[in-house]
Design goal:
There is one protein chain. The chain has 524 residues and is mainly alpha-helical. Among the domains are: 94 residues, Tetratricopeptide repeat domain (Serine Threonine Protein Phosphatase 5, Tetratricopeptide repeat, Alpha Horseshoe), CATH 1.25.40.10; 87 residues; 144 residues, Lysozyme, CATH 1.10.530.
């Protein structure tokens, strides 16, 4: 659990010790700034802005304006960031000039003013030519902006400049991929295939992520577009054989089946496919039979019989940490019954990984393991909240991608719980739901976390009606970014649109959620 910000009672004690009234002391600029910094550390940007507003109302200095700009940036209020950063730069910027220029360039890019953003990146290159890392970073940013803006020829030229620069080796795979993609979008399929062959020959990895299925699929699409259909179909069959349950495996099967004419409205749909429903039963022992070896497990069995799920989940967790030799079948069974899906998920992933590499056959145990890895988690609650607006399986899929069903996990950015909600987002959803008693600590409770998460998904489904892809993408990247991509001339081809998502994390996230959704649709 993340540490809490400074409480008012703690502040009052400090003020009292200093012989000052709490109210007067709280309004001192230095105190307001320290409180704002504490709130920023916990990603509470709106509250931090309120304190900084109070300081700036009486005049501001460099530190206050810089903190304010950072908060605005994190709150996605980019248009308000621009004039503040420009003011700081006019005043010199001191030793932070480069940082200010970089943030200003990013802010302009976020408001679709690519011309100003690119000009600022070129300005950085001109002002800091003796810093190879800075020049490399700005050149690559220019290339990506040109790509994002649909200027593919210019992007290719900049990417070629990047490859010639010292220090570009770690980016080589990413740069080559975007060069190949630019050629693909220019309909220069021969050049696209040539570069993708180079990528595949080099090992097809970007960081720790294998990319062979991605590169091979778009090589096949290039060949298909160039009229070389048999070569393309051979590659589709290879992808399907190597990655039968992967995102590109599904796309390849659609191509082979003649089912590739999809749009944003039906891309997430999947053709019916009956998965095996083989029977598998777990013999639950009597509590007294396991009492001596695992008292926690014995209590978990008792709580399971009494349908005291929260208590049962705690005892199951304790039994796993205290007994590494616990029967995995029994633990997974009890965990899934008592909404401890994070335990059964991890156990399935760690102990039965080989079974999850291929589709289950008519074996009841294989089906059971898959159900732990792809559960309909908290099903009664999710179906009650979501069924009137969208398929509940979207919620299960997002929950799996966000937290692996861990109800108390906190991300480095401060996102909390099953649906990985930022407190400020959850507070907005609570307000929309008429929940006046919002408490950030409630985000650790599955019922509240899922409730706020589903409310946010409903909001996104209203913003992007009939567009499941946009809804999923915006859950990760924010609705402003997805709206920008939809309105910025991205390809109307839904597969190409997903591939062009410029945020690496969101690009992979959308594919992961869709793949989970497709599996859930076929399993249940």
């Amino acid at each position: 659990m993340a540490a809490s910000v400074i409480s008012e009672s703690e502040l009052a004690e400090v003020a009292k010790a200093g012989g000052r009234s709490f109210e007067r002391w709280m309004k001192e600029p230095s105190v307001e700034i320290e409180i704002a910094k504490s709130l920023m550390e916990h990603s509470q940007w709106k509250d931090a802005l309120n304190h900084l507003d109070a300081v700036r109302s009486g005049g501001s200095d460099f530190e206050t304006d810089w903190l304010y700009a950072r908060c605005l940036f994190k709150a996605h209020r980019y248009r308000e960031v621009v004039p503040i950063l420009e003011k700081l730069l006019v005043n010199g910027g001191g030793g932070m000039r480069l940082t200010l220029l970089q943030h200003l360039a990013s802010a302009y890019a976020r408001i679709d003013d690519y011309e100003h953003s690119i000009a600022l990146r070129r300005k950085i290159i001109g002002e800091y030519p003796s810093s190879p890392g800075t020049v490399l970073d700005s050149t690559s940013k220019i290339a990506f902006l040109l790509l994002d803006d649909g200027h593919y020829k210019e992007a290719i030229n900049e990417f070629e400049n990047v490859l010639r620069m010292k220090g570009s080796a770690p980016m080589r795979t990413k740069v080559l991929w975007y060069m190949a993609w630019s050629h693909y979008r220019l309909k220069d399929y021969d050049s696209a295939v040539r570069i993708m062959n180079e990528l595949l020959k080099g090992g097809a990895k970007k960081g720790r992520v294998r990319m062979d299925d991605r590169f091979t699929y778009w090589k096949a699409r290039s060949l298909e577009n160039a009229g070389k259909k048999e070569e393309a179909r051979s590659l589709y069959r290879k992808i399907l054989g190597d990655h039968p349950i992967g995102y590109y495996g599904v796309l390849s099967k659609r191509r082979l089946d003649g089912d590739a004419r999809r749009d944003f409205g039906n891309f997430a749909d999947t053709r019916p496919h009956i998965w095996p429903k083989g029977e598998f039963s777990v013999q639950v022992p009597k509590p007294e039979d396991v009492q001596s070896s695992s008292p926690h497990l014995a209590r978990a069995i008792i709580f399971d019989r009494m349908e005291l799920h929260e208590e049962g989940a705690k005892e199951i967790a304790a039994s796993v940490s205290g007994n590494k030799g616990a029967d995995p079948d029994l633990i997974m069974y009890l965990a899934s019954r008592n909404f401890a899906h994070h335990i059964s998920y991890v156990m399935a992933q760690q102990r039965f990984a080989p079974l999850l590499k291929a589709l289950p056959r008519s074996n009841g145990f294989e089906r059971f393991v898959w159900e732990q890895s792809y559960p309909e988690a908290y099903r009664p609650l999710v179906e009650k909240l979501a069924a009137d607006r969208f398929d509940p399986k979207i919620v299960y899929s997002i929950m799996r991608a966000e937290s692996n069903f861990r109800p108390t996990v906190v991300s480095p950015a401060g996102a909390v719980g099953l649906m990985q909600l930022m407190p400020v987002t959850a507070q907005k959803m609570a307000h929309e739901m008429g929940d006046a008693g919002f408490d950030a600590h409630d985000l650790y409770r599955p019922s509240k976390n899922i409730g706020y998460g589903v409310q946010y998904l409903k909001k996104l489904s209203n913003l992007f009606p009939g567009n499941t892809v946009a809804m999923i993408a915006s859950y990760n990247a924010g609705e402003e970014a997805v709206g920008r991509w939809l309105n910025h001339g991205y390809s109307p081809d839904v597969e190409e649109f997903i591939e062009e998502i410029p945020y690496d994390e969101t690009n992979l996230y959308v594919k992961k959620v869709l793949m989970t959704y497709w599996i859930l649709k076929q399993m249940y």
